Every structure is written in structure tokens, then in C-alpha cells.
Amino acid sequence: DGLVVSEKVKNNNVDVKIPKSELEAEEKGAEEERPRESDSNILDVSSDYPRDKHISIQRHLADLEKLADLREDEKKPCPLCPEEKFKACYSHKLHRHLQNLHWKVSVEFEGYRMCICHLSCRPVKPNLAGDQTLSKMGAHYHCIICSATIVRRTDMIGHINRHVNKGETESRFITVAPKSSYNLVKESATDVQVLPNHSTPQKTDSYFNPKMKLNRQLIFCALAVLAGERKPIECLDAFGATGIMGLQWAKHLRSSVKVTINDCNENSVTMIKENCHLNKMKVKLNIKEEDSDEPVGNGEENSDTIEVTKMDANVVMHLRSFDFIHLDPFGTSVNYLDSAFRNVRNLGIVSLTSTDISSLYAKAQHVALRHYGCNIVRTEYYKELAARTVIAAVTRAAARCNKGIEVLLAVALEHFVLVVVRVLRGPTPADDSAKKVRYLIHCQWCEERVFQKEGNMLEENPYQQLPCDCYGSMPGKTAVLLGPLWSGALFNTGFLRRMLLEAVQYGLDEAQSLLKTLVCEAECTTLKHFSTHSPGDENKQEECGVYIRTPNTSAESYLVHGKRKSEEVLRSTAKRQRPEHSTEHPPFYYNIHRHSIKGMNMPKLNKFLNYLSEAGYRVSRTHFDPMGVRTNAPLAQFKTVLLKYSTPTYVGAQAEGPVHLPGEIHVGEELPAATAIKVEEAEEDDKPGVAAAVFTQSYPTHCAAD
């Protein structure tokens, strides 16, 4: 009879019969409402397929005028303005309106113009009465890429630039294939794709800094040395970004290493995989609910396979053990030290790069106290102070895991602080390392410094530990307590020499010059006495319980690399290494310009090093400061030698030579405070009329602030 029984509606338990024609009408109405909803939801961000672009996005002004359908005899409204804002008008007035208001302030992107829109597309905040009045409807722009609505034009330009920097140039409204936004960078025979804003870590997913090339070369040399001790080793790049560092490891060391590159950002993991394929490396994924990208083989690891993980750095270091771990986060790395030392293997290496130089270089002292638990001030040796601050934090983190450390390398340059340490498992090495974390007494007048003595007993006058007498001659408190800091050596000479050999083998020119300086600094000698194979290291074939391959070592003296040594061998090694602590390089350095004498010309730096060496002191240059001098001479003797070989500024043609001091003060004798030094030039017989000159200098109470 034209009736169909619908679903049972529980309304008084009565079956409701609805005519079939009414049901069909309701279904048609529902189908008509769905496209209307989709049309009104043009700005849906979650949609992946291309839609029709918004009417405010046009290529030419003529296209915008076509929307208005300009006619001379009829009044037409503006297609981008509501009637309450702009009433209908004739064509000449509407043309000026479209050109001056909408087209002139548009934002251009790949040939399209995003004109300003005044329609009710963007929700506005309600007024006090709770009504959204049309008069308060604000102007806005429609993003051609993500369909977002932006109010200000400058914000819209920045919004588009962020899309471009992230590589998101494909518009959901444009069906044309987008251009590739990746840049190709080559470093150490390794190609990587980077985004245009790769040098801005806050705004990119794949950070790549070309200025850190030297840092990457030093880490590669350290890994190459470790790979020569035992094979194969498992190494981790905890913060991969573009994967450049892990790719260099796998490409040059091949089967000696098993590389794992980790990053918690999905876009970075995608780029790492693309860079692996770009360098013809196979990718083995270790991401949850994902299998290997390519099959490796019949249970055998391919030498050209890199494992890529997408996890937090703390998680991946907690789950697995590694022989070599490198940490290079954005900023401080103290948040990852506990995880790094938890599962690192015995005699393994942990390297970390800290880029929070504002806090480490004492520009933000409260941040250094918060992150490292260390009190520091700005000094002439602030870079070495930063390196010792980081090592102290590393020592405490390793000691919490019953592990000790030996510092192999500590570098502090303009952009980063690099620390490379070897891990020694056991409570005894942990205790020995923890004892080397001490406080530093720093004089604020002459900048003399000395580490506090061991022991827990309080001293009646801690100023007596300083070699200077500023406390007795200056009013008030003259010294400050810095730290806790690492008081041990910053370099291992044998390890640095092997790093230099690896740098020469792989042609790393930038690292070679720095490593030569580091070797001279570790031995506290000048560069002219430098040699690649020193006679003292030929017989020293053992380092931290590991036998090292040297040119004069026979094959019978090698041990199987990678196996742990017994406790007796480790104890005997420690006993043999005790006498060598006296040959450690002296802590800290002096800047020759900082302690220059007013009115005197200083000698050349290399000549001054020779003068200090002839006076019986150990001396070398330092990479921390190009005008720094690392020496075991006290500051007073340093100034004495500097004064003796300086020349007065008014003697223009006088050659460099010693200044004869009154009373024949010799090197090694301490000058009294506020000594007046009078230099008189006698008249010569053949040159009469030369006036005598007098130079007065207050010494050694020289304020460091001057």
C-alpha cells in the first residue's frame, strides 16, 4: 500500500509506520546536506586531498574582478567583503576597491596572491554581552598551504616562510608538483640533504651546522682510534638530525663499526633514511611496530647497513649497551649523562658536545649553577674553566653508576665544548675520579688561581694557599671560591697521537693542526720540539688496561681487543701509571696581553716561550686562547720574565732584549709590591743631546680589570 515498516522506535512500544516517499525525501536531504557541510569546511586542515582554493587566492587581478562580475550599468557587491562593510557599487568604484584594499596588501607565493579577506571565515571573540557582532569581524588571510587564517600580513609572511623552511611547499589547493626544497651538502665524502633553514635549530627538524665540521672530525678520529683497539664496536649517534656524523662513521670505517643513528623527531628519521640511501647505505629500522626497511641477509650484518631508531635518547641508551656514545643535543647534555653511563661498556668512550656556551662561558652564571651545580665567574681562562665544569658533571654522573673516567680530550672553542672520556668500570676508579673534583681559589685582583687542597678540614686562612700576596696588600676580600671543577689532566698524550695518525690517514686537514697543538699542550712543550713519534711513548704501550698497537711493538705483545682484563692487571696498570702523574700538564694558562706592562713593548710570543723555558719552567701554547701561555710558573715569575724582556715604547729603534733592572733582580726572585722601576738611557759620546727617559711601573699590584 506504499508503506514500509521502519525501525522499531521505542516510544510506548508502538511500531511507527512511515510512508516510503517521506523516507526517500529524508535520504535525499541528508545527501544534499553532506556536500554543503564539506563546502563550508573548506578550511579543514585534516584533509589530505586537493580542494578548490579559497576565492581570496588568485593569480591575477583580472581573476579577482571576474568574481565580482563587473558591469557598468549594475551595482555589484565586493566578493571578499560583507555587505555591512562595503555596500554594492558601480564597476569603477569596485575596481579601485579591489585593487587598493585587497590586491595591494596581498601575500605572494609561487605565482599566487593571497588577498586580504573580510568575510566571516574566521571566528572572533564574543563581546561582553556574549554576541559575535558582524561589525567586529576582522580581516584575515587564507594560507595557500595549510588553509590556516592569519590576521596580520607580517605574520602571514612569516607563516609562509616557516612552511618553506620545513620543506612544506605543496599546497592542498594546487595540483602542480612542488619543487624540491632540499639542499645538498657534501662533507668528508658524505652527501646529505638539508632543509633551507638547517642552521637554525629552533625552527628546523634537521639541524646541520657547517661550523661544527672540526667537531665532527675530532669525534671521528676518536672513534677510529677505538676501532683500532677492538672490532667490531657498536657506536651510537644519539641525536642524528641529518645523520651526517653516523654516515661518516659507516662510510669510512666500514666493517669496524656497527652504527646506530637515533632521533626522536619523525621528520629527522625520514631525512636520515633518505640520506642513507643517497650514500648507498642500507637502512635497518628499529622503530616500534615497524620491520626492517630492507632485508639484511641470512642472519649476517652487512657492513653497509645503518640502524635507524626513533626513540628518546635516554630510552635507547637504557635499552642497549654501546662501546661508543656521542651526545650532541641542542644546549646542555647533563640530562643524558646518567643514561649514557648506565650501559656503556667497560673501556668504552663517551663523547659529548655542549653548545650552551652562554652559561659555560660565565655569561649566564645562574644557568651554570642550575645545570652543572657549579659556581663560575668570567676569568681570563674561562674556556678551560668551562671544560673543567663539564668534566666535573661527567665525573659525578659516572660515579653514580660505579664507573670512573679518564679524560682523553677536552676542547673549548668559539661555538662548542667537546669532552671525550674513557669509561673505567668499578668502584675504585669511580672513587679516584671523584677525588679529582675540587674547588678552585681565584684571586680577583691578579687572577692567580690554585686548586683547594684535599681534605675536609677547614683552614683558618684559605688565602695562604694562593701564591700571591693580594690579601695582605689589598683591602677587603680578594678571592672567590669557584667550582666544584675537575682538577685532573685534560688530555691523554698517547690517545692524541693516535688521533693525529688517524687524521693524517683520512686527510682531515682541519683536525691535524688542532691535534698538533693539543699534543704539544698535553706534553707542555713548544711546537718546534714536536715529533709524531716521541721516544717516551715508544715503550708506553698500555693505556687504561688496554694494550695499544705502536710501530715498535711486536705482534706477540698484543692482547685480544675487546676482552675485559682481570682486576690484577688493572691494579698493576694503575700502579705503573702513578709515577706518570707528575708529568701532567700544568692546570690553566695566562694571557700575555692580560698581564702586559703599561708603557712597554712585549716580546714576541714564541720568543717569550723560549725565555720562560730557559728560566727552567715548563711552557707551551694552548688552544683555549691564541695568546695564552700554559706554564707551571707562578704569576709573579711570569710577570718578572715578561718585564725583563720587554722594551720601553719610546725607544723606537731598540732591538728586543732584556731590560736591566735596578739591583740586578734575577729570574725566580719575587719583586716587592709597588716597586718603582727606573730605566735611564745614558748619552753616548757620538750622539750628544739624547734626553734621558724615566719609566715608572707599579708592580705586581696590577688590576686584572685594566
TrEMBL record:
One biological process term in Gene Ontology: tRNA N2-guanine methylation
Superkingdom per UniProt: Eukaryota
Homology family: Belongs to the class I-like SAM-binding methyltransferase superfamily. Trm1 family.
Pfam families reported for this sequence: TRM (PF02005)
Basic and acidic residues bias (residue ranges): 20-39
Keywords: Isopeptide bond, Metal-binding, Methyltransferase, Nucleus, Phosphoprotein, RNA-binding, S-adenosyl-L-methionine, Transferase, tRNA processing, tRNA-binding, Ubl conjugation, Zinc, Zinc-finger
An annotated Gene Ontology molecular function: zinc ion binding
Gene this chain is encoded by: Trmt1l
InterPro entries: SAM-dependent_MTases_sf, Trm1, tRNA_met_Trm1_C, Znf_C2H2_type
Subcellular location, principal: nucleus
PROSITE patterns to which the protein is assigned, alphabetical: SAM_MT_TRM1, ZINC_FINGER_C2H2_1
Record keyword Phosphoprotein present: yes
Biological classification of the source: Eukaryota, Metazoa, Chordata, Craniata, Vertebrata
Keyword Flavoprotein: no
PANTHER family: N 2 ,N 2 -DIMETHYLGUANOSINE TRNA METHYLTRANSFERASE (PTHR10631), TRMT1-LIKE PROTEIN (PTHR10631:SF1)
Catalyzed chemical reaction(s): guanosine(27) in tRNA(Tyr) + 2 S-adenosyl-L-methionine = N(2)-dimethylguanosine(27) in tRNA(Tyr) + 2 S-adenosyl-L-homocysteine + 2 H(+)
Protein name, entry field: tRNA (guanine(27)-N(2))-dimethyltransferase
GO CC aspect terms: nucleolus
Gene3D superfamilies noted in UniProt: N2,N2-dimethylguanosine tRNA methyltransferase, C-terminal domain, Vaccinia Virus protein VP39
